[in-house]
Amino acid sequence: MEHIPPRCSKAATRGEWRTHVSRRTADAPLDTAEDSAYRRARRRCRRRRLRPLWARVLRALAPAARRDDGGLAALAHHYRRYIQSTSGWSAVIESCSFLSEALDPARTPHVLTTSLTLSCVCALMERAIVLVNTPEATANERQWYKFLKSLARALKNTTLIVAKPIQPLPEAKVLHHIKQLESRSTIEILQRGKAADFELTKTDVCGQLVQHLC
Fold it and tell me: Does residue 10 surpass a pLDDT of 60?
């Protein structure tokens, strides 16, 4: 019978255990289709559990940012992993809706004072870049672009000190994405009783996003 070394805290035994595990892994058969399906199902279940959790976090971001001493930044990596593991636009648009509430012009945008906010936006943009691959702009894509314009407006008008993201994006990537969205956006017809927003040009939107996300 093969000797299986016990797990304990001694360095030598730990090395022996790692050698044993590596040898057993190398000798193991390749994953079957059933194993792969099981792993995919587990990942889907994990994403379903994480989505309501991140919804609560983003809803509470505005009041939490006012008391933040830097601890919220530790969540940025976990949010990026979560959003990159999602499929489709639904999780992206949901996150945008929560952040848009916190960036409402009627409120003071305290969310901009924590680096978690723009770190989330960077992660969302990375995901959106992958999703913008249809021949014509979709409703979700237009909603995403609308959120970016709202963010740019908040960045331009705020007097607060804006916290930089943990992992800034390359300027070339942000510029390409914004220009792609602009070229694919349709002409929006103003609704009756709604004033046109002339305070923010395309140059303003691009400039604010590049300045704060890169």
Answer: no
User: Is residue 213 a contact partner of residue 121, using CB atoms and an 8 Å limit?
Assistant: yes
Give the span between the Cα atoms of 16 and 21, in whole angstroms.
9
User: Domains of the chain: which residue ranges?
Assistant: 41-187+199-213
Q: Which long-range contacts (CB under 8 A, 24 or more apart) does 63-72 make?
A: 63/110, 64/114, 65/110, 65/111, 65/112, 65/113, 65/114, 65/116, 65/117, 66/110, 66/113, 68/113, 68/114, 72/114, 72/115, 72/116
Q: What would the pLDDT profile of 49-106 be if each residue is shown by its tens digit?
A: 788 999 999 999 999 999 888 899 999 999 999 999 998 999 999 999 999 999 998 8
Phi, psi for 8 (deg, rounded to 5): -150, -175
For the stretch 199-212, pLDDT in tens is 688 899 999 999 99
- Looking up tokens 């002339």 gives 198
